[in-house]
Amino acid sequence: MRASLVIVGAGPRGTGLIERIAANAPELYAGSGLDIHLVDPHQPGAGRIWRAAQSPLLWMNSHAEDVTMFTDETVAMEGPVREGPTLHEWAGIDGRVFADRQLQGSYLRWVHEQAVAALPPDVTVHHHPRRALRISGSREGRQQVWLEGRPRPLLADLVVVAVGHLDAELDDQQGELAAYARTHGLVHLPPDFTADSDLSALRPGEPVLVRGFGLAFVDLMVLLTEGRGGRYEGDTYVPSGQEPVLYVGSRRGVPYHSKIGYDWSGERPPLPRFFGPVQVRELLDRPHGFDFGRDVWPLVEKELGFAHYHRLFTAHQERTAMSWADFEEKYAAGSGAEIQALVASAVPDPADRLDLAALDHPLDGVRYGSFEEFQEGLRGYVEADLRRRHDDRNSPDLAVFLGLLSVYGQLIRLGGIGPWWHGFFSYLASGPPGPRLRQLLALSRAGIVKFLGADMTVTAADGVFRAAGATVPGAFVEARALVEARLPEPTVKRASDPLLRELAADGAAETADGLLRVDPVDGRVLDRAGRPHPRRFALGPFTDGRTPGAFTRPRTGGPAFRQNDATARAALRFLAELSSRAAA
């Protein structure tokens, strides 16, 4: 009997897994054939998010040269490296371009075709354009994967759930706001993928409250301006007259930091230095567990500081007052207040010192006397951010970015990465392209976008939504429309996808933040007793093994590649053993 593997989700993660199966099969699988069943209502490769049917105005959030689906020698994995072209090499475009998502979808479809073609001749891939509803079956036997509109299940020796980002049911607060909107004839758009939201109810000239200042907001901004016929003439926005007025705020009250606009040169910081495999193993071996704030964050902070100061001392030594050798020795031995004192004596300009708390809360304690003053003030903040992120005199920022990637790779090994860290990483390292922030400035000057400030609150009363922020005390804005500009939280219990809820009901464990717990070694789903399921795996942002960003930068280690390889090898070993037993 031929072995059967079901992969639920045929987007980039499912494709990456097939690529690793193809790479590892010659070594690990000599069974009598294998059927791989891909379950996804969307086209394999691109999946839902990168589908062709979306606005060409929507860009990727990375330079084309920073997007690859192929492994390289920096990936710490057991399987063989199979190199391939980055997006810009494949498409023949400038590597510094921010390609549109339709082009990325074409690249992903090509990668999928290449991965399938590289499979051994006796491995066959079947695509089922349906949703998976649930998985049943004992730990010891074949699994049944039930599909929408199909009376019989797919039989699987192994199942890998790689569904990517999730839709979610409304939480209590969102539910109350939605109910108020229905009762009073208001518009409430809950967290969603902006490309999938129906924006037609947001009417020209009317105020719209927008909660969220990250990438979902950027997409919203584009679709409601250029998407409605507006255009840019240099640094000036020329309205079409079809735009609403967007009042935007968030917890931080500022947009994510701009993508860095220069290339790395010279020596890279030797990472990991203070938070690597040794420290991860020590944390995992603690009999009573560990606390992120007490035990992990000091290591993260020291690692990021090391990356920052290594670059400052080696590339901009004229701005330091000590030799790198002396600084490194004292930095390695110190902690807390000792490091602060060391930095104060060795780095004269406070602007050259790394202050993670200030970066995370840039408007803490900042107050403006009027709404109009704050508009000018935040435009100045964005302009300063653009200057800094496009000037290689500030190259320690790029070193910190490399440090964040290194840290994320280690946190995945620990498991249990919560939403705070993921949000902090995205804010610093996964912000919008510089041109998008320049468009934001033009829209602000044109009066199309207005800023509400930090600690934004939204209430519903007197037949309207009312928003206020802490940055301009006493100021508030009323509107009949509210958009929650962020992705749904990837919690298992609130996922609209019944498959994940059924997994939890069947005994799969969740973290305190609602993510699915998986074995950090190979991605097997863990039950509430911490036991890995022998036949079920999960990969993606709904797990506590979530990785940074949607795609991997070449030659940065690629935690997602390492995970894909480990899962593929574990699956192939399991299937090979099954085949061997069947033949005996």
UniProtKB/TrEMBL annotation:
SUPFAM superfamilies: FAD/NAD(P)-binding domain. Residues 6-165 form the FAD-dependent urate hydroxylase HpyO/Asp monooxygenase CreE-like FAD/NAD(P)-binding domain. Pfam families: NAD_binding_9. InterPro entries: FAD/NAD-bd_sf, HpyO/CreE_NAD-binding, L-asp_N-monooxygenase_NS-form. It comes from the Bacteria. This is FAD/NAD(P)-binding protein. Residues 537-562 are annotated as: Disordered.
